[in-house]
Amino acid sequence: MSSTQTSDLIPVPSGQLNIADVSNESPEAVDCPVWFSLVVPTYNEGKNVEHLVAVLSHLLNEAVGDDYELIIVDDDSPDGTWKEALALTNAYPRLRVMRREHERGLSTAVIRGWQVARGEVLGVIDGDLQHPPETLVQLLKAMRDGADLAVASRHIEGGGVSDWSLIRRFLSRGAQLLGLVICPAVVGRVTDPMSGYFMVRRSAIANISLDPLGYKILLEVLGRGRIDHVAEVGYVFQKRQEGESKVTWRQYIDYIGHLVKLRSRGRISRFREQFPFARFFRFGVVGFSGVFVDIAVFYLLRFHLGLNIFRSTALSAEVAVINNFLWNDLWTFGDISRKQPGQRQRLLRFLKFNFICLMGIVLQGLIVSLGHDVFGINEVISKLLAIAIVTLWNFWVNLKLSWRVTQVK
Ligand code: GDD
Ligand code: MN
Fold first, then answer.
1. From the CA of 172, how far away is ligand 2's center (Å)?
2. Res. 401 pLDDT band, cuts 50 70 90
3. Which residue spans traverse the membrane (predicted)?
4. 306-363: per-residue pLDDT in tens?
5. What is the whole-number distance in angstroms between the Cα of residue 196 and the centre of ligand 1?
């Protein structure tokens, strides 16, 4: 390998899998923008690469003139795919080649390619000619017509698989069905969520930290991108002519792991957005104040007024409940209380609050004995656990019941 060849390789981006806005790109990209960047991930596709580049270049020259670039991202293939590709760059000036030596995997290869891309529309196609290049024309049209994402699909009109065994069809559909169960919001958005042949608008995935697992980069784009308008184009998955597939059982496991990850991410962020943290904090402060009220009043009743232990406990607890209610009504839920004015409304809130607190005490007793007697957890830990659970319960039920905003017509 000569040194000029090596210097012609695109440097591999490192760090986060984050795609920049065009404006933040390298000076080179700003000086030399194109409309469309097509990434081809390859691993041991040496026998396919020349034909592939020829076909894609011919097709794209016709479709978009010279407003495109082809980016081959090769994971240091033992068969030297990257070298073959590099040798083609003289004949095909729109071709760029990246050789990754320290990172592996189809999905991250695609993202690394998009990171150095200059286009406004980013695409991906397999490097083994199983994705018919002609479909690019329809995908490009869909993007021109304003789609955020255009997916080549085997499962709509005009789509299909050429010679798949019954078992492979069954596995593929089974995986799709399983995906629908795990993460319907992602998998249900397109007819062919496993497709590795699609285009996406840069703006839809720019400045988002992508973190894919395994083979299915489309899941990541659907799960994390800002995708409104989706278009689909049918295609027939071709028979592999040269080389072999890299799919193993590992990809099925990664696929499930990827979906679980996307699903929990959505959950956590939704929880963060929706849970009223500030209100819960105020509720906690008020509850804490109640503990001191409770103990002080208990002390007073028991040792200064000489009431018996049961009465002292019950009365002091009730005084604490009243204390908590007043502060919660004024402060924690003050904004809601003000929308329900009048003494009658306030009394109603108080009665509900009281009732919920009472149930909380019963619940606490149940949790403590469950934790201690059934699961054998230490008594004090059981008690702390019960307090934590009941505090949450109290907060949530009071929010939904006592201070519920009643819709007035
Ligand atoms: N850079 C890189 N790194 N490329 C890889 C890697 C990798 O680790 N693994 C696979 N590739 C490349 C292959 O060289 C090929 O160009 C493309 O990714 C697809 O890999 P195949 O192994 O040929 O996959 P397939 O044909 O079995 O699976 C395809 O199934 C879908 C339909 O179910 C997927 O690749 C999808 O793209 C396709 O739509
Ligand atoms: Mn293939």
1. 14
2. confident
3. 280-301, 347-368, 380-399
4. 999 889 988 999 999 999 999 999 999 999 999 888 999 999 999 999 999 999 989 9
5. 8
Sheet hosting strand 121-124, strand order edge to edge? 95-99, 68-74, 36-42, 121-124, 198-201, 149-153, 230-234
Q: What total number of domains does the chain contain? A: 2
Q: Is the pLDDT of residue 28 over 60?
A: no
In a domain, 408, yes or no: no
Task: Name the closest-CA residue to atom 8, ligand 1.
Answer: 105
Residue 18 phi, psi (nearest 5):
-120, 130
- pTM score of the predicted model: 0.71
- Domain with residue 201: its CATH number is 3.90.550.10
Q: Give dist(CA 377, CA 370) in Å, integer.
A: 9
Ligand nearest to the CA of 72: 1
- The ligand 1 site (C-beta within 6 Å) comprises 41-43, 45, 73-75, 104-106, 109, 126-128, 130, 194-197, 237, 245-247
Going from the Cα of 199 to the center of ligand 2, the distance in angstroms, rounded, reads 18
Report the chain's mean pLDDT, rounded to a whole number. Answer: 90
Q: Give residue 21's pLDDT.
A: 85
Asked if 217 and 129 sit in the same domain, the reply is yes
Atom from ligand 1 closest to the CA of residue 73 = 1
* H-helix or E-strand spanning residue 96: strand 95-99
Confidence of residue 379 (pLDDT cuts 50, 70, 90): confident
Residue 250 CA to ligand 1 centre (angstroms): 13
Q: Is residue 407 part of a domain?
A: no
Phi-psi region of 175 (alpha: psi -120 to 50; beta: other; left: phi over 0): alpha
Please identify, by atom number, the ligand 1 atom nearest to the C-alpha of residue 43.
14
**Cβ-count burial of 138 within 10 angstroms (0-12 exposed, 13-18 middle, 19+ buried)?**
middle
Whose atoms come closest to the Cα of 236: which ligand? 1
Query: How confident is the model at residue 408, as a pLDDT?
Result: 46
pLDDT of 31: 64
**Domain stops at, among 241, 271, 301:** 271
